[in-house]
Design a protein that fits this description.
Elements: H1 10-25, H2 40-46, E1 51-55, E2 61-66, E3 72-73, H3 84-94, H4 106-118, H5 128-136, H6 149-165, H7 168-178, E4 185-186, H8 188-196, H9 205-216, H10 222-235, H11 242-252, H12 266-272, E5 279-281, H13 286-295, E6 305-310, E7 316-320, H14 342-351, E8 360-362, E9 367-368, E10 376-377, E11 380-382, H15 383-388, H16 392-400, H17 404-413, H18 428-439, E12 443-444, E13 458-459, H19 463-472, E14 474-477, E15 480-486, E16 495-500, E17 504-510, H20 515-526, E18 539-547, E19 554-559, E20 566-568, E21 576-580, E22 586-588, E23 598-605, E24 610-613, E25 616-620, E26 623-627, E27 631-638, E28 644-653, H21 656-660
Parallel strand pairs: 1-5, 3-4, 18-20, 22-28
Antiparallel strand pairs: 1-2, 6-7, 6-17, 8-11, 9-10, 12-13, 14-15, 15-16, 16-17, 18-19, 21-23, 23-26, 24-25, 24-27, 27-28
Length: 661
């Protein structure tokens, strides 16, 4: 059969056309200058994660927050931290001769050009270097519907220039960190962590095959991605991995990828993190935070908020704004609780020696024995039990006797801004900081959750006052000793529990059915076996007896000089009463010539007494000798602060003989 000389066979022409194409493209090497490509160091330095990250004090991730909604990229991954399986899969699928060429694989380029120009379908020949040039310069980026000869020409020239300035390791590292994978994911770090929940260093052969297959079609359907990945695995000699690859493609490729990776402290993260790429180290203890979260049960209030402070430093060790990561932050939310201030008013009165733990407080109405109307039983309770049992009449009555400016100044020392007589709605953060002063020997300082925050401690209480208040509210529990105040419900129905153990101050807000049980579970999760603190200098212990014996004798702590052994409560519930003279007495002096008449004024009281006659000091004590003077008189007794406990009026008339004269 004769051959047509004008139409040589295709097999004979192929070497000639390849050689011709190489001759035509050879000037690329000489024209490789002129592209303003950045240095590797510039590219790496300008890489900014779309997410910000909050860390605990040891570097443990607590929470991440996406702040760039245009693209999802995470931290830059150095080539040394890349899984070998990922590197092998990438080079096998995308650029087998990567380490042999100088930016353009001329053999692959010529073969692709031959196939594209003279038949055999479409075929690409872009090296990793050429693809990276397109990622670095948008003008060199190839459209999805194939590239023109001019675009291929420009990209090839840029690749040659890139190879003259960067080494192979830098090119490979930059490509993996800039390449798009699926959806808005950019870079190997985002792809591995958000699709497979693995760092790039731990990618296995199956995950590596799937991620490499995504480079050819980032948004292809999972079955097509799996098919390509299986073909790649087979070329690597891993035919037995196709089943796992298919399973991973179906289960992982289209799962939600916009969820946070770390969820231990999302509320604090929203408070601290401001911009993408930010990495903030907090003072939180990630292990403690995790233990506290694990102490909750599904039956607990999802809006429960918890704050834990270190007693010695005031540092925030745990911050749970709510169990719902998307819920409002209950740590900083203002709370309208009616009785949060009672312990602080009590402590101020103890420090000013207005009262002691054993002081009897009237509870309101007098309770009578129905069997005998003459046997009146006073309605009273000592300060210790009135505070423990939340007796509003007794405690509000105490506060009414305090000097307003001294009270407001003490609130300011505790970090509150008074609105009227009390702060309108303090937050859990403010309450925990104020309470911690009782645990820190009276030293207050603002709670700190970042190392950069300043600490300016100041004295809010005397050490002995702080100890006595803590002792008033102390009790043993499952985790050992603790001093705890349980506030009544706030406006949203939540209970506030603020207290401290040996090491921690723990504040809880919850609407659950068992707030005390939850607080104790949290205390146990924080640290068990809490021991009571030692008493500071300046305190006196005294056995106290009560008359009538409505409370059993016990030992109490007193500030030195305020101790009392017997607490006498009057039958009508008052704190003091003048026995003699009687109210309304009209007395006539003896006849002239006798020695001046003298009376022994008598009173009974549960506190030290001062006598006043017609507004002038007369003396102290429950019995006082007085030289009787004629006239209309007002006699009063007061306590150590000057509060009038009882007052009467009486009249003394001169002797008849004196009147005649």
């Amino acid at each position: 059969m004769a051959h047509n000389s004008a139409s040589p066979p295709a097999a004979a022409m192929k070497p000639f056309r390849c050689l011709l194409l190489l001759v035509l493209l050879s000037p690329l090497a000489a024209l490789a200058e002129g592209f303003a490509l950045p240095a590797f160091e510039q590219v790496r330095a300008s890489h900014l994660s779309s997410d910000a990250l909050l860390l605990d004090r040891t570097g443990l991730p607590l929470a991440d927050l996406r702040l760039d909604t245009r693209v999802r990229r995470l931290d830059w991954v150095p080539l040394a931290q890349l899984s070998p399986a990922m590197r092998d899969a990438l080079l096998t699928a995308e650029d087998r001769r990567f380490f042999a060429h100088s930016g353009v694989d001329w053999v692959a380029f010529a073969g692709a050009a031959w196939q594209n120009l003279w038949g055999g379908g479409k075929r690409g020949a872009s090296t990793l270097t050429m693809q990276l040039a397109g990622l670095l310069d948008p003008a060199l980026r190839m459209p999805a519907n194939r590239r023109s000869v001019a675009q291929k020409w420009d990209q090839s020239r840029a690749a040659l220039e890139l190879e003259s300035k960067w080494n192979k390791q830098q090119i490979l590292e930059a490509y993996l960190n800039l390449a798009p994978f699926r959806g808005d994911l950019q870079g190997i770090s985002a792809a591995s962590e958000l699709i497979f929940k693995l760092p790039a260093s731990r990618l296995g052969p199956s995950e590596a095959s799937l991620l490499t297959a995504l480079l050819r079609g980032p948004n292809a359907a999972p079955p097509l991605v799996a098919k390509r990945a299986c073909r790649l695995a087979a070329s690597l000699g891993r035919n037995n991995q196709c089943g796992e690859i298919t399973r991973l493609a179906q289960s992982q490729l289209d799962t939600p990828r916009n969820m946070p990776r770390y969820r231990l402290a999302p509320h604090l993260a929203r408070r601290v993190l401001q911009q993408g790429g930010q990495r903030s180290t907090s003072l939180l203890d990630g292990h403690l935070q995790a233990r506290l979260l694990a102490a909750f049960t599904p039956q607990d209030d999802p809006a429960s908020a918890v704050l834990v402070l270190d007693n010695s430093s005031g540092e925030v060790l745990a911050w749970i704004g709510a169990l719902d990561p998307l819920g409002a932050d209950g740590v900083v939310r203002p709370r309208l609780a009616p009785d949060w201030w009672w312990p602080y008013a009590t402590a101020l009165g103890i420090e000013q020696r207005q009262w002691t733990a054993a002081s009897p407080l009237p509870l309101g109405a007098v309770i009578f024995d129905p069997r005998d109307a003459r046997a009146a039983t006073p309605s009273w309770m000592s300060l210790r039990f009135a505070l423990r049992d939340h007796q509003p009449a007794a405690l509000i009555g105490l506060h009414a006797r305090q000097e307003r400016e001294a009270w407001l100044e003490r609130l300011r020392l505790l970090g509150f801004e008074p609105d009227g007589d009390t702060p309108a709605a303090p937050s859990l953060l403010q309450l925990a900081s104020a309470w911690r002063a009782f645990a820190a020997n009276g030293q207050w300082q603002a709670a700190r959750w970042l190392p950069t925050q300043e600490s300016n401690p100041r004295r809010a209480w005397r050490a002995d006052t702080a100890f006595v208040l803590s002792d008033l509210l102390a009790s043993p529990g499952p985790a050992g000793w603790a001093s705890l105040w349980q506030s009544h419900a706030s406006e949203d129905g939540s209970r506030l529990l603020i207290g401290h153990s040996e090491r921690y101050t723990l504040a809880l807000a919850t609407t659950g059915n068992d707030p005390l049980g939850l607080w104790q579970r949290l205390q146990l999760a924080a640290a068990g076996d809490s021991r009571p603190p030692p008493a500071p200098p300046g305190l006196v212990t005294q056995n106290v007896y009560f008359e009538p014996a409505l409370e059993t004798p016990r030992s109490e702590y007193f500030l030195r000089g305020s101790e009392i052994e017997t607490v006498t409560v009057l039958a009508d519930g008052r704190r003091g009463r003048i026995i003699f003279p009687a109210a309304g007495l009209n007395h006539v002096l003896d006849e002239t010539g006798r020695p001046r008449e003298r009376w022994i004024l008598q009173a009974e009281s549960s506190t030290a007494l001062r006598w006043l006659l017609d507004g002038h000091p007369l003396g102290e004590g429950q019995r006082l000798l007085w030289n009787v003077q004629p006239g209309q008189h007002r006699l009063a007794i007061s306590d150590g602060r000057g509060e009038i406990l009882h007052a009467i009026e009486f009249e003394v008339h001169p002797a008849p003989e004196s009147q005649e004269r």
